[in-house]
Amino acid sequence: MESIDTKYSQGAFVRFGPFRYHLPPMTAHTLKTRFAPSPTGYIHLGNARTALFSALLARKGDGVFLLRIEDTDLERSRSEYVEALQQDLQWLGLPWQEGPGADRGNGPYFQSERARLYADFYNRLEASGQAYPCFCTPQELEMSRKAQRAAGRPPRYSGKCANLNAEEVQARLAAGLKSTLRFRVPGDRRIVFEDLVRGEQRFEGSDIGDFIIRRADGTPAFFFCNAVDDALMGVTHVLRGEDHLTNTPRQMLILEALGLPVPQYGHISMIVGPDGSPLSKRHGSRSLRELRAEGYFPQAVANYLARLGHNFQSDALLPLERLAAGFEFNRLGRAPARYDAAQLLSWQQQAVAQARPDTLWAWMGPNVEALVPAQSKEEFLQAVQPNVTFPGDAEHWARVLFTDELPLDEEKRETLVAAGTEFFRAAVAALEAHGTEFKAFAEGVKSATGAKGKQLFMPLRVALSGETGGPEMGRLLPLLGLERARRRLQAWA
User: Fold this and answer.
1) pLDDT exceeds 80 at position 29
2) pLDDT at site 14
3) Integer Rg of the chain from CA
4) At how many degrees (to 10) do helices 473-480 and 438-449 cross?
5) Which regions of 261-396 does DSSP assign to beta strands (E)?
6) Which residue from 3, 1, 94 is spatially nearest to 43, judged by alpha carbons?
7) Which of 224, 318, 367, 477 is exposed most, by the fewest CB atoms within 10 A?
8) pLDDT tens per residue, range 79-136
9) Are 467 and 400 in contact (CB under 8 A)?
10) CA triplet 302, 198, 70: central angle to 5 degrees?
11) Helix, strand, or coil here: 132?
12) Hey, how many other C-beta atoms are within 10 angstroms of the C-beta on 482?
């Protein structure tokens, strides 16, 4: 029984029909990874993690990260998604060194523009007898699969059209029948490869069956164009989800038949929800675009995704360079990675806490900029940074400090009423005596009322800020100002 293994090309020119292609050397010195999304929606967390791992591997190996747009599904692919996915990758800190806008001589990088190239390879496979037209209808194929399942056999193509001669093929075409193109898989072949994550993998050709490489409408199947483009674009390492594991032997057979180099494959674990089911919106999962709109820092998202299915020695918030340095195949887990919204939020809080003042100010947005006086900007940032997670939190505190808005729910009103009017009269007097120096002000209230601990500080915090927690009052009171603080205390005196 024959077997095939992954091998590296030494670099060569090959000619197929009118086309001449250069196959770059696939060596450790020219490591190239890729991200090849279909623009049928916004990038979700699973795809974002695949892009991140691929980019980290390229950075670690001083290689090339390639972006290819797999837009052969013309009905579902949309230009706005193409633009969005490029913006999202840039936002996450994953610029590509090759792809749209960065041609390195292997384009075009949109599969919809590569139809002539695929047609040439199809012709080559047909001419060599390694592919053949199949006229079986979807209904016939479904009936065959049902019969196989009923007999306890795994469903695979029966080979009904595998031995049609040229005259029979022409007769069917002349009758207006449409055909797919199937790749002929020798039943005695064994496909063996070393998965970068999962170790040795073995597949029997008899278990695969002849598979479709061109649909009846003439568009290429994923197996085909994905594999061909990886080879022609010099991709050396393919990281993708484990749901693609069974695609790999098919793609290796295609590349072998065409004399094209085979990259190394690594199949990473899937991301699942807390209940173990496939990750979805009901688990709180959002697209990168949604996370960006909510105010997540890209570094927070990158650090969270980098640890979904990969173990790092450091638990600190790391820049992409250090994430790349710590990326190792033997640290990639094989078990499903569970999505945890609380962990993502924790990384966000760390990113906000460590953000530089100029970055933080830009992140807070125009609403905060409009509310905070220019002379108070630095003090405001210092006051609220430890207590904000999203831009909306910063806007809330800006309104508390620099407007007369102070909505109070019933529970907070009860706290103020319970403190009593005498308490707040003493607070007004202490404010007049000590100004906005909070420690001295609070000591003045304590001396006048005898209140201490929670009975002292909670009514003061609620009356002045409208909240039971938050930034240090020693930082808030000077920002609030003497006049606004006086009015808020007098309202309960």
Assistant:
1) no
2) 45
3) 32
4) 100
5) 264-268, 271-272, 337-338
6) 94
7) 367
8) 999 999 999 999 999 999 999 999 999 999 999 999 999 999 999 999 999 999 999 9
9) yes
10) 55
11) strand
12) 13
